[in-house]
Amino acid sequence: MLSDTIYLGLALILLTTTQVLAAAIPSATTCSANSAPNPIASKYPDLITGTLNESVVTVFIDYSIARKIVPKQWGILQVYKKYLPSSSGNLYPVVLELGVDHDVRAGSINVPDFSSVRVTFPFIDLSGDGKSNYRYTPAIFLPPIPLIVAGAEAYGEKAIQSTFDPPCDAYKLVPVGGRTSGQYSFAATSTDNKYNVQLTATVSKATNYFPLDVYKQVLNQPTFGDGLSCDNYTHIFDTSITKPEVIRANLSGRVPNMPSQQYNDAQGIRLDSAFIEGNNVPCDSVRGHYL
């Protein structure tokens, strides 16, 4: 349980966030029609909880490019290679999360929904123990809300202020020939038009290189930007709202430090999951995410 002083401080911060967000994001009645209510808020009333409804897409880049992007002081653990076919060569998986945080709460404080695109580099040996996995997050697309942007920048992440389509939902269905198809889309464009990400995807019966358990492990690797503190964002996968689906996606755009190209038939999953978030925790205190 949080002390009264800490909890009051958290409540005041979230109250300010709520007031700022409420002025800039459509009301909750028109946001996140595809997201379920937070199923763990009453179980963890003193913690920051919510749901994240998202598409998680893996794009494979040459390891040498990844090595140039991830700062040289941090190693890249090679555990992911056992899941890749021998014909894949020297590739590295970049994991993008595209979706919406929904029904975020801390006690009686509610934060309006907001969209994001997280660009993450998993399997990073931040602690130097050769086995604990972290995710380096050099860039994240966020709405132009000062408090949300400041939260990402506190980790040393590049916060790309953006608009989203749909503006406040996990995805929108793409009609074909006037009829609803199985295809859906999600997009983010920076407010200065320098960066963007466009996703179109469909649910698939195909098999991913990474089984579901690997995606779950990756999503729960603590994230960081400069390595001074970590975001301990823990997905809870055993509630009734989580029903993962395999997807195949076309992904394109321009992201800082990443090669600009079209990734066709990229692998991934779509899921809605509850989460508990621990902000600005010492990174050494959350080591132990092994694969």
Describe the 3D structure.
The protein has helices at 4-24, 63-69, 146-153, 212-219, and strands at 48-62, 75-76, 91-106, 109-111, 114-125, 134-142, 158-165, 172-176, 179-190, 196-203, 223-224, 230-236, 245-254, 263-281. By secondary structure, the protein is an alpha+beta fold. A nine-stranded mixed beta barrel has the order 1-3-5-6-7-9-10-13-14, surrounded by four helices. Mean pLDDT is 88; it is low at 1-30.
List strands and helices in order, with pairings.
Elements: H1 4-24, E1 48-62, H2 63-69, E2 75-76, E3 91-106, E4 109-111, E5 114-125, E6 134-142, H3 146-153, E7 158-165, E8 172-176, E9 179-190, E10 196-203, H4 212-219, E11 223-224, E12 230-236, E13 245-254, E14 263-281
Parallel strand pairs: 6-7, 6-11
Antiparallel strand pairs: 1-3, 1-14, 2-5, 3-4, 3-5, 5-6, 7-9, 8-9, 9-10, 10-13, 12-14, 13-14
